[in-house]
Amino acid sequence: MKKIYTYNVRPGYRNLTVADIKANKGVKKLTQVNAKNAEEAYAAGVANIDMLICDSNNVEKVREGNDKLFLTVSLRVAEYPTESDILRAAFKALDLGADAIMTGRSMPIVSMLAREDIPVSGHLGLVPRKCTWFGGLRAIGKNADEAFELFQQFRRLEDAGAFSVEAEVIPSRVLKEISIRTGLITVSLGSGGGGDVIYLFMEDVCGENSTQPKHARTFGDIFKLKELIKQERISALKKFHYSSINGEFPSKEEIAKIEESEYDSFVEKLGT
Known about the structure:
This protein is 40% helix and 17% strand. The chain is an alpha/beta fold. 32% of the residues are buried.
């Protein structure tokens, strides 16, 4: 653990700093998952995950569960549309414990944040909210021209001042070639093992949904457990209902009791 000062100038510890992450490029693979709450953040720490990413609305919850792992915060586009909104939101996230800010916005936005010495991560490849420009959800960089244009975007992002980039659904060999030609830390989401950081959604890792994206692998089966819990809840409620209307619940062992003499005295006071 490294001793640090947070952006609100409080002493703390982090498993990684930006300098450490950059030093690991081409040397050691790191892992990243998203977290939505304290429980997920705590589990990631126990599992030795290297990095976390969360939505800007969940920073406090995530930091309650883990205040040591390097945390990137993604800013919701609709909530922070203007430059002043973005800058204000970035500083708030950093004040709450974020270590870096991720944005899929324009290069001037990235430069604005970088000029304030904020560690910035961009988002290239399949950016879902921009998928209409690519004809829908698909891998980006599957032909030579598109792959080269993608490389140029990586270079522009680096020139804008970003230190890392979420590289989403890019052919593995394309990302590998790009990654060795850029100083950006490449965070591979569905883009193979050629990135510096391997990223997968918590819900995909843990198997929380009935289906997963093609690029994901499930390492658990929380969906099955949730289905079992749902059925167990229904079963318990049915049994409660049946036992209640048939007089089986509550039983003598499940009710509060009063001494016979006290009960008689109580009835007498009632005048019946």
